Amino acid sequence: MPELPEVETVRRGLDPVLRGHVLALVEQRRPNLRIPFPDGFVDRITGRTVTALRRRAKYLLFDLDDGQVLICHLGMSGRMTIQPRGSNQPADRHDHVVFTTDDGMQVVYNDHRRFGLMTLTTSRQEADHPLLAKLAPDPLEDAFTPAHLSGRLAGKATPIKSALLDQRVVGGVGNIYACEALNRAGISPRRLAGSVAGKRCERLVPAVIDVLREAIAAGGSSLRDHRQANGELGYFQHNFRVYDREDSPCPTRGCEGHIGRIVQANRSTYFCSRCQR
DNA sequence: ACGAGAACCTGTTTGC
DNA sequence: TGCAAACAGGTTCTCG
Protein backbone atom coordinates (compact mmCIF):
# COMPACT_ATOMS: atom_id res chain seq x y z
CA MET A 1 0.00 0.00 0.00
CA PRO A 2 2.02 2.91 1.18
CA GLU A 3 4.61 4.38 -1.10
CA LEU A 4 6.53 7.57 -0.45
CA PRO A 5 3.53 9.93 -0.75
CA GLU A 6 1.37 7.86 1.57
CA VAL A 7 4.12 7.54 4.17
CA GLU A 8 4.86 11.25 3.96
CA THR A 9 1.16 12.01 4.38
CA VAL A 10 1.09 9.87 7.50
CA ARG A 11 4.26 11.50 8.84
CA ARG A 12 2.79 14.97 8.46
CA GLY A 13 -0.39 13.90 10.18
CA LEU A 14 1.39 12.30 13.13
CA ASP A 15 3.86 15.12 13.66
CA PRO A 16 1.66 17.52 15.65
CA VAL A 17 0.40 14.69 17.86
CA LEU A 18 3.75 13.10 18.63
CA ARG A 19 6.56 15.66 18.34
CA GLY A 20 7.43 17.02 21.75
CA HIS A 21 5.16 14.52 23.48
CA VAL A 22 5.89 11.65 25.84
CA LEU A 23 4.95 8.08 24.92
CA ALA A 24 3.16 7.60 28.23
CA LEU A 25 1.76 4.16 27.41
CA VAL A 26 2.77 1.66 24.73
CA GLU A 27 0.69 -1.45 24.05
CA GLN A 28 2.19 -4.22 21.90
CA ARG A 29 -0.43 -6.85 21.17
CA ARG A 30 1.52 -9.53 19.33
CA PRO A 31 5.13 -10.76 19.30
CA ASN A 32 5.94 -9.92 15.71
CA LEU A 33 4.94 -8.25 12.51
CA ARG A 34 7.04 -9.11 9.43
CA ILE A 35 9.92 -9.46 11.87
CA PRO A 36 9.83 -9.88 15.68
CA PHE A 37 9.62 -6.81 17.86
CA PRO A 38 12.98 -6.26 19.58
CA ASP A 39 13.43 -7.57 23.12
CA GLY A 40 12.00 -5.19 25.68
CA PHE A 41 10.36 -3.06 23.00
CA VAL A 42 7.65 -1.60 25.22
CA ASP A 43 9.92 -0.90 28.18
CA ARG A 44 12.59 0.67 26.04
CA ILE A 45 10.32 3.34 24.60
CA THR A 46 7.74 3.94 27.33
CA GLY A 47 8.29 7.34 28.96
CA ARG A 48 10.46 8.64 26.14
CA THR A 49 9.73 11.92 24.38
CA VAL A 50 9.47 12.00 20.59
CA THR A 51 11.80 14.75 19.44
CA ALA A 52 11.24 14.43 15.69
CA LEU A 53 9.38 12.41 13.08
CA ARG A 54 11.29 11.72 9.90
CA ARG A 55 10.83 9.69 6.74
CA ARG A 56 13.45 7.83 4.73
CA ALA A 57 12.05 6.28 1.56
CA LYS A 58 9.03 4.34 2.86
CA TYR A 59 10.30 4.15 6.45
CA LEU A 60 8.96 6.33 9.26
CA LEU A 61 11.58 7.18 11.87
CA PHE A 62 10.69 8.44 15.34
CA ASP A 63 13.60 10.16 17.10
CA LEU A 64 13.44 9.66 20.87
CA ASP A 65 15.02 11.88 23.52
CA ASP A 66 17.51 9.22 24.67
CA GLY A 67 19.04 8.72 21.22
CA GLN A 68 16.94 5.73 20.23
CA VAL A 69 15.24 5.70 16.84
CA LEU A 70 11.99 3.81 16.31
CA ILE A 71 11.92 2.41 12.77
CA CYS A 72 8.46 1.72 11.29
CA HIS A 73 7.43 0.38 7.92
CA LEU A 74 3.78 0.14 6.88
CA GLY A 75 4.25 -2.77 4.47
CA MET A 76 1.31 -3.21 2.12
CA SER A 77 -1.59 -2.58 4.46
CA GLY A 78 -0.30 -0.69 7.51
CA ARG A 79 -2.06 2.38 8.89
CA MET A 80 -1.16 4.82 11.64
CA THR A 81 -4.27 6.65 12.75
CA ILE A 82 -4.98 9.07 15.56
CA GLN A 83 -7.82 8.90 18.04
CA PRO A 84 -8.43 10.41 21.47
CA ARG A 85 -7.95 8.01 24.40
CA GLY A 86 -11.29 6.58 25.45
CA SER A 87 -12.89 7.20 22.08
CA ASN A 88 -15.54 4.73 21.13
CA GLN A 89 -13.57 3.29 18.24
CA PRO A 90 -14.06 -0.48 18.56
CA ALA A 91 -10.74 -2.32 18.84
CA ASP A 92 -9.89 -4.14 15.64
CA ARG A 93 -8.15 -7.53 15.68
CA HIS A 94 -5.41 -6.03 13.52
CA ASP A 95 -4.64 -3.12 15.84
CA HIS A 96 -1.16 -4.35 16.74
CA VAL A 97 0.41 -1.40 18.56
CA VAL A 98 -1.17 1.55 20.39
CA PHE A 99 0.85 4.55 21.56
CA THR A 100 -0.82 6.87 24.09
CA THR A 101 0.77 10.28 24.62
CA ASP A 102 1.03 12.38 27.76
CA ASP A 103 -1.92 14.48 26.63
CA GLY A 104 -4.19 11.56 25.93
CA MET A 105 -3.97 11.11 22.18
CA GLN A 106 -3.56 7.63 20.74
CA VAL A 107 -1.71 6.54 17.62
CA VAL A 108 -2.95 3.13 16.49
CA TYR A 109 -0.87 0.91 14.21
CA ASN A 110 -3.20 -1.38 12.26
CA ASP A 111 -1.90 -3.85 9.66
CA HIS A 112 -4.03 -6.80 8.56
CA ARG A 113 -1.39 -8.35 6.32
CA ARG A 114 1.47 -7.78 8.76
CA PHE A 115 4.05 -7.01 6.09
CA GLY A 116 4.99 -3.96 8.12
CA LEU A 117 7.55 -3.84 10.91
CA MET A 118 8.73 -1.91 13.95
CA THR A 119 12.19 -2.08 15.40
CA LEU A 120 14.69 0.06 17.26
CA THR A 121 18.12 1.46 16.53
CA THR A 122 20.04 4.50 17.73
CA SER A 123 20.85 7.72 15.95
CA ARG A 124 24.51 6.70 15.99
CA GLN A 125 23.84 3.34 14.34
CA GLU A 126 21.08 4.42 11.99
CA ALA A 127 23.28 4.90 8.94
CA ASP A 128 24.58 1.33 9.24
CA HIS A 129 21.30 -0.32 10.12
CA PRO A 130 20.64 -3.23 7.73
CA LEU A 131 17.15 -1.99 6.85
CA LEU A 132 18.36 1.51 6.02
CA ALA A 133 21.99 1.32 4.94
CA LYS A 134 21.43 0.58 1.26
CA LEU A 135 18.49 2.90 0.63
CA ALA A 136 18.99 5.32 -2.24
CA PRO A 137 18.62 9.03 -1.48
CA ASP A 138 15.13 10.43 -1.41
CA PRO A 139 13.87 11.49 -4.84
CA LEU A 140 12.53 14.72 -3.35
CA GLU A 141 16.02 15.81 -2.29
CA ASP A 142 18.17 18.00 -4.51
CA ALA A 143 20.62 15.16 -5.07
CA PHE A 144 18.08 13.34 -7.28
CA THR A 145 19.19 14.51 -10.71
CA PRO A 146 19.31 12.86 -14.17
CA ALA A 147 23.05 12.37 -13.76
CA HIS A 148 22.54 10.70 -10.42
CA LEU A 149 19.75 8.42 -11.64
CA SER A 150 21.45 7.38 -14.86
CA GLY A 151 24.48 6.46 -12.77
CA ARG A 152 22.34 4.15 -10.67
CA LEU A 153 20.72 2.61 -13.76
CA ALA A 154 23.90 2.14 -15.78
CA GLY A 155 24.57 -1.45 -16.71
CA LYS A 156 21.32 -2.78 -15.26
CA ALA A 157 19.76 -5.50 -17.39
CA THR A 158 16.42 -5.49 -15.58
CA PRO A 159 13.42 -3.58 -17.02
CA ILE A 160 13.24 0.08 -15.97
CA LYS A 161 9.94 -0.54 -14.18
CA SER A 162 11.55 -3.15 -11.93
CA ALA A 163 14.61 -0.94 -11.40
CA LEU A 164 12.41 1.91 -10.14
CA LEU A 165 10.98 -0.43 -7.50
CA ASP A 166 14.49 -1.25 -6.26
CA GLN A 167 14.96 0.87 -3.14
CA ARG A 168 18.71 0.94 -3.76
CA VAL A 169 17.98 2.81 -7.02
CA VAL A 170 15.24 5.23 -5.92
CA GLY A 171 14.11 5.45 -2.31
CA GLY A 172 10.36 5.46 -1.93
CA VAL A 173 8.90 4.71 -5.35
CA GLY A 174 6.50 1.76 -5.48
CA ASN A 175 4.25 0.08 -8.01
CA ILE A 176 1.76 2.89 -8.56
CA TYR A 177 4.20 5.75 -8.95
CA ALA A 178 6.65 3.74 -11.05
CA CYS A 179 3.86 3.15 -13.60
CA GLU A 180 2.66 6.73 -13.43
CA ALA A 181 6.12 8.27 -13.80
CA LEU A 182 6.99 6.09 -16.80
CA ASN A 183 3.79 7.10 -18.58
CA ARG A 184 4.46 10.78 -17.92
CA ALA A 185 8.00 10.37 -19.22
CA GLY A 186 6.96 8.39 -22.33
CA ILE A 187 9.22 5.47 -21.44
CA SER A 188 8.26 1.82 -21.87
CA PRO A 189 8.32 -0.14 -18.62
CA ARG A 190 9.97 -2.97 -20.58
CA ARG A 191 12.96 -0.89 -21.66
CA LEU A 192 16.17 -2.10 -20.07
CA ALA A 193 17.15 0.14 -17.17
CA GLY A 194 20.66 0.59 -18.51
CA SER A 195 19.27 2.19 -21.68
CA VAL A 196 17.45 4.92 -19.76
CA ALA A 197 19.94 7.73 -19.98
CA GLY A 198 20.30 11.08 -21.72
CA LYS A 199 17.01 12.62 -22.82
CA ARG A 200 14.92 9.79 -21.43
CA CYS A 201 16.49 10.15 -18.02
CA GLU A 202 16.01 13.91 -18.21
CA ARG A 203 12.29 13.29 -18.68
CA LEU A 204 12.05 10.56 -16.09
CA VAL A 205 13.53 12.50 -13.16
CA PRO A 206 11.01 15.37 -13.24
CA ALA A 207 8.21 12.86 -13.93
CA VAL A 208 9.07 11.00 -10.72
CA ILE A 209 9.41 14.20 -8.70
CA ASP A 210 6.19 15.73 -10.04
CA VAL A 211 4.02 12.67 -9.52
CA LEU A 212 5.28 12.22 -5.95
CA ARG A 213 4.73 15.89 -5.09
CA GLU A 214 1.25 15.91 -6.59
CA ALA A 215 0.35 12.75 -4.72
CA ILE A 216 1.55 14.17 -1.40
CA ALA A 217 -0.53 17.27 -2.00
CA ALA A 218 -3.55 15.01 -2.52
CA GLY A 219 -2.96 13.08 0.71
CA GLY A 220 -1.68 9.98 -1.12
CA SER A 221 -3.67 7.34 -2.98
CA SER A 222 -6.36 5.28 -1.24
CA LEU A 223 -7.05 2.09 -3.16
CA ARG A 224 -8.00 -0.14 -0.27
CA ASP A 225 -6.12 0.47 2.93
CA HIS A 226 -4.43 3.84 2.92
CA ARG A 227 -5.74 6.39 5.39
CA GLN A 228 -4.20 9.66 6.37
CA ALA A 229 -3.36 9.87 10.07
CA ASN A 230 -6.63 11.68 10.68
CA GLY A 231 -8.50 8.74 9.15
CA GLU A 232 -9.44 10.51 5.92
CA LEU A 233 -8.87 8.97 2.52
CA GLY A 234 -6.23 10.23 0.12
CA TYR A 235 -7.57 11.19 -3.26
CA PHE A 236 -4.69 10.98 -5.73
CA GLN A 237 -6.18 7.75 -7.13
CA HIS A 238 -8.59 9.96 -9.05
CA ASN A 239 -5.61 11.42 -10.90
CA PHE A 240 -4.05 8.14 -12.05
CA ARG A 241 -3.17 8.19 -15.74
CA VAL A 242 -2.50 4.45 -16.10
CA TYR A 243 -2.52 2.55 -12.79
CA ASP A 244 -5.51 0.18 -12.56
CA ARG A 245 -6.92 1.66 -15.79
CA GLU A 246 -6.60 -1.26 -18.20
CA ASP A 247 -8.37 -0.63 -21.53
CA SER A 248 -8.92 3.07 -20.80
CA PRO A 249 -7.77 5.59 -23.41
CA CYS A 250 -4.23 6.84 -22.83
CA PRO A 251 -4.46 10.35 -21.36
CA THR A 252 -1.33 11.59 -23.15
CA ARG A 253 -2.24 14.51 -25.40
CA GLY A 254 -2.52 13.39 -29.00
CA CYS A 255 -2.04 9.71 -28.16
CA GLU A 256 -4.82 7.43 -29.32
CA GLY A 257 -3.53 4.33 -27.57
CA HIS A 258 -5.14 2.39 -24.75
CA ILE A 259 -3.76 1.30 -21.41
CA GLY A 260 -2.51 -2.27 -21.23
CA ARG A 261 -1.51 -4.48 -18.31
CA ILE A 262 1.51 -6.77 -18.13
CA VAL A 263 3.21 -8.55 -15.23
CA GLN A 264 6.83 -7.78 -14.39
CA ALA A 265 8.59 -9.35 -11.41
CA ASN A 266 5.19 -10.59 -10.21
CA ARG A 267 3.77 -7.06 -10.09
CA SER A 268 1.13 -5.54 -12.38
CA THR A 269 2.41 -2.87 -14.75
CA TYR A 270 0.03 -0.51 -16.53
CA PHE A 271 1.23 1.46 -19.54
CA CYS A 272 0.50 2.66 -23.07
CA SER A 273 2.52 0.82 -25.69
CA ARG A 274 1.80 3.56 -28.20
CA CYS A 275 3.40 6.57 -26.50
CA GLN A 276 5.78 4.81 -24.11
CA ARG A 277 8.93 3.71 -25.93
C1' DA B 1 26.85 -11.01 -9.06
C1' DC B 2 22.47 -10.55 -11.05
C1' DG B 3 17.77 -11.36 -12.07
C1' DA B 4 13.47 -14.13 -11.76
C1' DG B 5 10.25 -16.24 -8.85
C1' DA B 6 8.38 -17.63 -4.55
C1' DA B 7 7.29 -16.62 0.10
C1' DC B 8 5.44 -14.01 3.95
C1' DC B 9 -0.38 -13.04 5.59
C1' DT B 10 -5.14 -11.60 5.30
C1' DG B 11 -8.94 -9.79 2.90
C1' DT B 12 -11.64 -8.81 -1.24
C1' DT B 13 -12.94 -9.45 -5.89
C1' DT B 14 -13.51 -12.34 -9.95
C1' DG B 15 -14.68 -16.37 -12.55
C1' DC B 16 -16.55 -20.86 -13.18
C1' DT C 1 -25.24 -19.25 -4.82
C1' DG C 2 -20.84 -21.16 -3.58
C1' DC C 3 -16.29 -22.13 -3.84
C1' DA C 4 -11.64 -21.52 -5.59
C1' DA C 5 -8.45 -18.74 -7.77
C1' DA C 6 -6.48 -14.40 -8.52
C1' DC C 7 -5.03 -10.26 -6.86
C1' DA C 8 -3.57 -6.29 -3.63
C1' DG C 9 0.27 -0.17 -2.26
C1' DG C 10 6.40 -4.25 -0.11
C1' DT C 11 10.43 -6.66 0.99
C1' DT C 12 13.49 -10.56 1.29
C1' DC C 13 15.05 -15.16 0.49
C1' DT C 14 16.35 -18.96 -2.65
C1' DC C 15 17.67 -20.73 -6.83
C1' DG C 16 19.78 -20.95 -11.39
Account of the 3D structure:
With 277 residues, the protein is of the alpha+beta class. It folds into 2 domains: 4-128, N-terminal domain of MutM-like DNA repair proteins; 146-272, Helicase, Ruva Protein, domain 3, CATH 1.10.8. It is 23% helix and 23% strand. It has 6 helices and 10 strands. The protein has helices spanning 4-18, 41-45, 146-153, 160-165, 175-185, 198-217; strands at residues 23-28, 50-56, 59-64, 68-73, 78-84, 95-101, 105-111, 117-122, 259-264, 267-272. The strands form 3 sheets. The protein has a 4-stranded antiparallel sheet with strand order 1-6-7-5. The chain has a 4-stranded antiparallel sheet with strand order 2-3-4-8, covered by helices on one side. The protein has a two-stranded antiparallel sheet with strand order 9-10. It is globular, with a radius of gyration of 20 Å. It starts with a helix and ends in a 5-residue tail after the last strand. It binds a DNA duplex (16 and 16 nucleotides) through residues 1-3, 6, 34, 58, 73-77, 94, 112-117, 131, 156-158, 162, 165, 167, 174-177, 220-221, 223-226, 243, 265-268.
CATH topology of the largest domain: Helicase, Ruva Protein, domain 3
- CATH class descriptor name of the largest domain: Mainly Alpha
Number of strands: 10
Task: Report on the biggest sheet.
Answer: 4 strands, antiparallel
Structural class by secondary-structure content = alpha+beta
Number of H- or I-type helical stretches? 6
> Whole-Å distance between the termini?
28 Å
- Order of the strands making up the biggest sheet: 1-6-7-5
What is the average per-residue confidence, as pLDDT, rounded to a whole number?
Answer: 96
For the record, the count of structural domains works out to 2
Judging by the overall fold, what is the CATH architecture of the largest domain?
A: Orthogonal Bundle
Poorly predicted spans: none
Helix content bin: 10-25%
Radius of gyration: 20 Å
| Strand percentage | 15-25%
Order of helices and strands: HEHEEEEEEEHHHHEE
* Spatial shape: globular
